[in-house]
Amino acid sequence: MSDSRPTSTAGPDKARFVIAFALAVLALVVGWDAWRLSGINTYSAVGPEAFPAIIAAGLALLALANAVEAVREGAQDRPRDEAGPMAWVLAGLIGQIVLLAFGAGFAIATGWLFAATAKGFGRGPLWGHFLAGAAMCFVIYVVFAKGLQLALPAGPLERLI
Amino acid sequence: MKHLFSGALLATAVAVAPFGAAFAEINELKIIAPAAPGGGWDQTARSIQHVLQSDKLVENVQVLNVPGAGGTIGLAQFVNSSKGDPNVMIVGGYVMVGAIITNRSPVTLAEVTPIARLTGEYEAIAVPANSPLKSLADLVAALKADPQKVSWAGGSAGGTDHITAGLFTKAIGIDPRKVNYIAFSGGGESLASILGGKVTVGISSLSEYDAQAKAGKLRILGVSSAERLPEAPDVPTFKEAGIDVEIQNWRMIAAAPGITAEQKQELSQTIEKMVKSKAWTEMLAQKGWANTYLSGAAFDAQLAKDIAATQTILKDIGLAQ
Amino acid sequence: MDTFAALSQGVMVALQPMNLLFAFVGVMLGTAVGVLPGIGPALTVALLLPITFKLDPAGSLIMFAGIYYGGMYGGSTASILLNTPGESASIVTALEGNKMARAGRGGPALATAAIGSFVAGTIATIGLALIAPTIVDLAISFGPEDYFALMVLAFTTVSAAFGSSVTRGLTSLFIGLSLGLIGIDLQSGQARLSFGVPDLLDGVEVTTLAVALFAIGETLSVVAAGARADEIIEPVKGSVFMNREDWKRSWKPWLRGTFLGFPIGAMPAGGAEIPTFLSYALEKRLCRKPGEFGNGAIEGVAGPEAANNAAAAGVLVPLLTLGLPTSATAAIMLAGFQQYGMNPGPLLFATNPDLVWGLIASLFIANGMLLVLNLPLVGLWVRLLAIPRPWLYGGILVFATLGTLGANPSLVELGMLLVFGLLGYVLRRYDYPIAPVVVGLILGPLAEQQLRRALAISVGDPLVLFQSPVALTLYVLSALALFGPLLFYVITGRKAPVGADED
């Protein structure tokens, strides 16, 4: 998606420092898990801890390599990302999970996802899209859950049929 | 699409007419298959669904797949969300017993209401046709010489196959921790390693090896049943060879925790009627499953015995604390 | 020549009008369900199998074959058009296929996938009929040490094919490898990186990760780019069908894909993913215009799709000759066969030849039906991309979550979709390649299990890894893949043609 080439300016690339830090944390977690597993006492030529240990070491090296490249390549000018539209899409995904958790059922929860995503891409109104999305998802539910016995979460709407 | 929609219409018609269902004892039943579609538990659940509906024992049966971690995820969901609900049941089996222990599952079989054991399979030990091991006695001798030189191919670690291998070695006086067990994720892959002579012996359900044995590619050394099995009358049992191991990989159906005695009674009767039906017998024959129906107090006792024995052997193998 | 007599007999039965109708219905239903992301052919067949019960054996066998092929092709269609792979074997298709679709070349991409599948399916079916007994002996002789060498080859060729920066490529790969550790370890029964969360015990589902990284990650980066990313998606540019050049660039990858896919698919632990990776890497190496790789090279669709289909036919080799179900799809097919009174096993060819040849003929007819049905529909499918962006992406998210919920109705699974979607967004934003994450998740656990099996069988002796001629050959090929470009440079003094990075 990077159609505009990043150009380098002075100072290290902060974003890649953050990535290097995240990799270091991941290395620690995987390494800790390997250490925990090495205490388990079963017979095997190569235990469950060997691969995690290798991967943890690799992650640690990569954290270092990313940090070095962050300094060497310098800060990059990346086009600004817009937080608003992205927040709508994320709200759609998170909202779907929350709605399902509270038993709203597939049609309502996924209708909300559809409406929020459309809103994020600049198309309203939220209510109209929600109703259209919920109707569409209700039809999908009928076809897949009733026709094919696919287990999709049911809510008040789905129980009507 | 015609089949689909007529099916959907039918289901709708049934759901809106609850009082028209005088001929069925239970209106609605949801069966949880704690596995992905296609596996053994899923097929069991769908067979039950088919027979209950076709024999009009239950008006409307739904199967819900909750896959994961040897059935423990489905079990946890079942126990937590359907307390006291007489219209939900779960399919399970011996694999669950081991998985609950090795995964340290917070929910156990003690929390459900077991209804009946339905089907079961026995474990078998097989070697390639050209193997120097001719009998269980040869295998015992090889194990006593050096247990680590004998590699066993079977299903995932801590599963029925691994447990049987552990019980077998323990019964002949070898530390089950020394079992050189090679786990395979699918039956085909492990069978290929046995046929290719990559491992010393294979251990799995008899049905996995039966066809190969009939074709002369495998030799089955022994089975884990109490008596010789009709499908393999020439194969000795472990007990005949003096190895005191008897194990059945069974499948069962259980009801929700906290249901009343009457509700349990009604479900037990429905399942008993199903097991005695012609449709069920045909279904078992088609799938090649043995009818090992056991219910009530006898099943409860068997279950308790299996759980205790499994706990011990998994500790011996080193998979449980 | 009995073989051909039996096969043509089977084809005659399958060609009866009623049976053709069943094939048609099967392909339609299979495609409709297979399009859902996360629902691959195995699950599609499992869901639709009950529908076939009501038919006579011949009819249901044919419908079954139709569903199977429809399910596979549905996965490819979703990969190409929506960037939501339906199964792990069509992930590679999404890489180039979706780029093509966005550039108005979705038609040729769908066509080369369909025709490539047909060509591969046909050749592989003939292979199945003629050399199944020979190839199966070879396949069985593969031990864990040989499989490990095959994984090493896949790792080296694939990592050479993805991305221009070594650090970035390896970073993505290691993220994938770490994700592959999650869950219960098969060999020891121990839970790794699960932190007591029961839903993590089964590990990360490949399709969940792929759909999240590809579809959700992309939706997030497109929406975040706002007006800046107003790259207009052109549904059709140029011919909706393949032009002369497309044909010229497709036929060799079809054949090469077939020859990678069939034997590897026939191996008990080969699978369909590895041949698609190898095919992608190979086509990238051989492509005359390597710069197009990453921007929609038709070879990158043609080769892997053929490999995927040939591997699916290859899976039938151990299933029909030995009765070994070596994949989820094969296991569900086995259940299907038993439904029709056939018990796959070493004696099947001897005891039920008519059923076996009937099945092979059915697969053949279903494959043809797929082609007949889908080529005219290509124009219609690509119109999907003409949907305005808010609705297109809204629809993609609806389908992504529908597929995930359908395969595993768990909110934790949806949560993983969200988290990995964010990961995909971050990787895109900072120019890390996406595909190696998925490759790591697929290949890491396979390589680990095979290595540990090999060492357990040899009681810890590492020399076992280098004693088999097959393994040694594969290591030499890996070395060539890694150091080949360097050798090329040393010998000719020119830089070897290397493709652009993937994203």
Automatic annotation (TrEMBL), chain A:
Recorded hits in Pfam families, A to Z, give: TctB
Q: Which residues cross the membrane?
A: 15-35, 50-68, 88-114, 126-144
User: Which InterPro entries would you find in this protein's record?
Assistant: DUF1468
Key word Transcription regulation present: no
Keywords, in A-Z order: Membrane, Transmembrane, Transmembrane helix
Which superkingdom heads the taxonomic lineage of this protein's source?
A: Bacteria
| Protein name in UniProt | C4-dicarboxylate ABC transporter
Task: List, for all copies, the residue spans of the domain called DUF1468.
Answer: 18-153
UniProtKB/TrEMBL annotation, chain B:
Upper taxonomic classification of the species? Answer: Bacteria, Pseudomonadati, Pseudomonadota, Alphaproteobacteria, Hyphomicrobiales
User: Any idea which UniProt keywords this protein has?
Assistant: Signal
Q: Which family does it belong to?
A: Belongs to the UPF0065 (bug) family.
Q: What is this protein called?
A: C4-dicarboxylate ABC transporter substrate-binding protein
Pfam families (UniProt xref): TctC
Q: Which InterPro entries match?
A: BUG, Bug_dom1
Which segment of the chain is annotated as a signal peptide? Answer: 1-24
Superkingdom of source: Bacteria
TrEMBL record, chain C:
Q: Which InterPro entries match?
A: DUF112_TM (IPR002823)
Keyword terms, alphabetized: Membrane, Transmembrane, Transmembrane helix
Q: Which Pfam families match?
A: TctA
- What start and end residues bound the annotated signal peptide? none
> Ranges for the DUF112 domain?
20-438
Q: What is this protein called?
A: Tripartite tricarboxylate transporter TctA
Q: Which residues cross the membrane?
A: 20-49, 61-82, 109-135, 147-163, 315-335, 355-379, 391-412, 463-491
